[in-house]
Write a structure and sequence with these properties.
alpha/beta, Alkaline Phosphatase, subunit A, three-stranded antiparallel β-sheet, 12 helices, 18 strands, 34% helix
């Protein structure tokens, strides 16, 4: 959907850009960055155990800024509440917006944090806060949650990428979201099907490809005996990873799913992207992000939330139910978040503007106490009234939920960098 109502910031437009690239290029960049970042002490020792347990992180990113008042923290019959009712959920005493009737039936699996204050109203900076757990700095860059998860949770010898971003227009390109962890853990952007350039050309038979591969191996061995280097090893590894990925391209193909599942998730793009996300988690991908756009409702907030959440609600509820029914819920951390919320004050265009002072996220699954409601806002949602938290607290909580000690540090080329903001701590009452 083309969003004429959006604020048109540079960061907002970036959300719509298509990232192009080839799998071989992605893998090449990825392997070139492999092995550059280590983890001292406890974390390094824990990696095999974490990988064996196959924990997963699944992020549903509602780009532009979901209104908390039309979703997780409704305020009906107030000066800020808007036209929608609050409805009961499967958790006694917990109500959410009437725009989420299917999700309401799954709330006993989920929890809500209603007391977020990031003090950030800029799209780019707000997204950076929520995805990295840090404020954006001119002298430092931090990896996104998915990159950190891929580093810590993915099996070392997996032929599949550990970090995938499913979004409209995704075509196999790599995103710049892994910072000092290196390109190996950057997300690959997919748009509902296998990455481009992962099938053999029609004129190349499997037998010819096998002969070509054998010749390449022979040439590599000859070169390695004379002039082996870290760069040549990275190139060889990248090619091998790309070749393994080609052999597993069916992992990314929704047409392998039963038609009834396609119908349950919805024929729209978000529905099929969530079905792909479930498929990727089932196939062992450690970190997946699905983006649904666009919630930047400066104009006609209520009409657009009817449309956007109408598409989101049944698909999301289906995703939760499937993760539970398929035995993936206890090993998958599911987080629904945006870069900020929307203003309680309704503007003169019947819209809501950017609001980082008092808003909500929903989450559940691995390591999360179900049916919890953390914090609250005041009667009309203008301020946090209890248990104020921010992006740093949330990031610690996500890592702790999947079994990572978030107080540990990465060793980045001799520099010791905390995994999460040392000034924050996890939301302990949210952890199971």
């Amino acid at each position: 959907m083309k969003c004429h109502y959006a604020c048109r910031s540079a960061e907002h437009l970036m959300e719509r850009r298509k990232f192009l690239g080839t799998v071989a290029g992605i893998a090449g960049a990825g392997m070139a960055g492999a092995g550059t970042v280590g983890m001292p002490g406890v974390v390094q020792a824990a990696m095999p155990e974490l990988a064996a347990k196959q924990k997963h992180i699944l992020i549903v990113w509602l780009a532009g800024g979901l209104s908390q008042l039309e979703s997780w923290d409704p305020k009906p019959k107030t000066d800020t509440g808007g036209p929608f009712r609050a409805i009961p959920t499967s958790v006694p005493g917990t109500h959410i917006s009437e725009l989420l009737p299917y999700t309401a039936k799954q709330m006993h699996h989920l929890s809500i944090v209603r007391s977020i204050d990031t003090k950030e109203n800029d799209h780019g900076k707000g997204a950076y806060c929520m995805k990295t757990g840090r404020r954006q700095e001119p002298v430092a860059d931090y990896p996104h949650l998915g990159a950190v998860g891929a580093k810590l949770l993915s099996p070392v010898d997996s032929p599949l990428p550990g970090h995938i971003h499913v979004q409209a227009g995704g075509s196999g390109g790599s995103r710049d979201d892994s910072a000092f962890l290196g390109p190996r853990y950057a997300s690959i952007s997919l748009g509902g099907g296998p990455p481009r350039n992962t099938a053999l050309p029609e004129h190349v038979t499997p037998e010819a490809d096998a002969r070509r591969h054998a010749f390449r191996m022979q040439a590599n061995d000859h070169f390695a005996r004379r002039r082996r280097s870290a760069q040549s090893d990275a190139f060889v590894s990248s090619f091998d990873q790309a070749r393994q990925l080609m052999e597993r391209r069916d992992v990314f193909d929704n047409t392998k799913e039963p038609q009834r599942d396609v119908e349950r998730y919805g024929s729209h793009e978000f529905g099929q992207n969530c079905l792909l996300a479930r498929r990727l988690i089932e196939q062992g991908i450690s970190c997946v992000q699905v983006t649904h756009t666009n919630y930047d409702t400066h104009h006609e907030n209520f009409d657009f939330h009817i449309e956007q959440l109408g598409e989101f609600d049944q698909t999301f509820a289906t995703l939760v139910a499937d993760l539970v029914d398929r035995g993936l819920w206890d090993s998958t951390l599911l987080v629904v978040m945006s870069e900020f919320g929307r203003t309680p004050k309704i503007n003169n265009r019947f819209g809501r503007d950017h609001w980082g002072r008092a808003w909500s996220v929903a989450l559940g699954g691995c390591g999360i106490q179900p049916s919890a409601v953390i914090g609250k806002t005041n009667d009309n949602g203008t301020e946090v009234a209890d248990r104020q938290v921010d992006h740093g607290h949330l990031f610690h909580t996500y890592l702790q939920a999947v079994g990572v000690d978030s107080t540990e540090k990465f060793d980045a080329g001799g520099r010791s960098i905390p995994m999460a903001d040392p000034a924050a701590e996890p939301i302990t009452e949210l952890l199971a």
